[in-house]
Amino acid sequence: MALEKVDLVTPSGGGSTSKLVTGSFFQWPLDTSAEKSLAKNVPVPISEWYGFKVKVETSGKENLIGASLGDLEALAVELAEPRFRARQIYANLYRRRLGDWALFTDLAKPLREELGQRFAIYYPEAIQVFQSSDGTRRYLFEVAGGHRFESVFIPEEKRDTFCISTQVGCAVECLFCVTGKLPMRGNLSAAEIVGQLLALQQDRGTDSKRLNIVIMGMGEPLLNYDNVMKALRLMTDPLGMSISPRRITLSTSGIVPGLERLAHEDLIPNLAISLNATTDEVRDKLIPINRKWNIAALLEACRKFPLEPRQRITFEYVLIQEVNDTPEDALRLVQLLKGLKKKVNLIPLNADPWVALKTPSEERVLAFQKILLEHHLTAYIRRPRGNDVSAACGMLAGRNQPTGNDAPPPHLTP
Ligand code: SF4
């Protein structure tokens, strides 16, 4: 990523001034027209948003984002450099988030030049950012081939949350999710998964507040298993990004072989299961992969999943009017989850023009929760965040306007 001088429009809008951003951190909020535009939900060019341009390297050089410490150690050997050089480069890439070889001042100049001739450092390009009235921000990223995906930044008083994507489109085709209406374009690489995280960290502008990562954006992470695991290792490495696995939650629609594989890893994030139904008949319709791995098979895999003493599995339950929100459903849910270490997140459906389902009334949602609570099941109602800019759960579709519109989703052939 190259940092360069850009023109920032003054708050009055009367002319422009230049500001050189040379470090990898900057203060939020930026005092630019970006803020004014964002208040009106107008998409803002990323150059204004960041305060510097994120230039995607097009010279064909290999991107070092995504490289593991082992990869860099092999590079150090190839360059006849001592091994500790690899650690220096690794920390600069992932801990200090330096995007320009000139800033790697702990390396000798000839080495910096050699690295710069061979390798680039860049994140996925955020081509638009949409700001919700509640402070949530939806980022529209574009990678090689013009493929688009999204991430969401959800600021809260005591912590921030990043919701990140793992695929472009999704083959699971859940009925309640707009991502599932998109053609499946492919997997994101480990570099693209951690790249979106690094880009959001840059924009966040602070590392002092608690940060949670939820792998709940576009795509089914367990269908991109190897890249997701590689990205998880980069995120959690104490020598690099150093994010605790306890601050990372992976959500799956119920890919049972993937769950069984994850259960045997030495690195296991928190687990969330997108359950959403209490009978196979309904779940088959809402989440078609249920026909392959039904509720019983999924919950059996959950029962075997290793958990630390105070750890629980989160069961996500999107409430859809007259589909899965009856008192009978609530009682069945209590029975199904018996014996599991769990909590339930109730998510009233986020309405979208692409989804022909209805959000239940508040009374129905509260009545559903009440039954769970009466049976001593911990159940929270998730407050929607960012739904005015299509950033809430189930609304990510790579759309380049602030909200979903009535235009039909793209045809499902690639
Ligand atoms: S809810 Fe998740 S698994 Fe289902 S279609 Fe959407 S992105 Fe895919």
How many alpha or pi helices? Answer: 12
Strand content: 15-25%
Kindly name the structural category: alpha/beta
Helix content estimate: 25-40%
Task: Please tell me the CATH architecture of the largest domain by its name.
Answer: Alpha-Beta Barrel
**Tally of DSSP β-strands:** 16
Q: What ligands can be seen in this structure?
A: iron/sulfur cluster
Report the end-to-end length measured between terminal Cα atoms: 30 Å
- Main β sheet profile: 10 strands, mixed
Strand order of the largest sheet: 5-6-7-8-11-12-13-14-15-16
* Apparent shape: globular
Arithmetic mean of pLDDT? 84
Oligomer: single chain
Q: What series of H and E elements makes up the topology?
A: EEHHEHHHEEEEEEEHEHEHEHHEHEHE
The top-level CATH class of the largest domain is Alpha Beta
List the helices and strands and how they pair.
Elements: E1 6-9, E2 16-19, H1 33-39, H2 46-50, E3 62-63, H3 69-78, H4 84-95, H5 109-118, E4 119-120, E5 125-131, E6 137-143, E7 147-155, E8 159-163, E9 167-168, E10 186-187, H6 190-204, E11 210-215, H7 225-236, E12 248-252, H8 256-262, E13 270-274, H9 280-286, H10 295-304, E14 313-319, H11 327-336, E15 342-348, H12 362-374, E16 379-381
Parallel strand pairs: 3-4, 8-11, 11-12, 12-13, 13-14, 14-15, 15-16
Antiparallel strand pairs: 1-2, 5-6, 6-7, 7-8, 9-10
Helix pairs in contact: 3-4, 6-7, 11-12
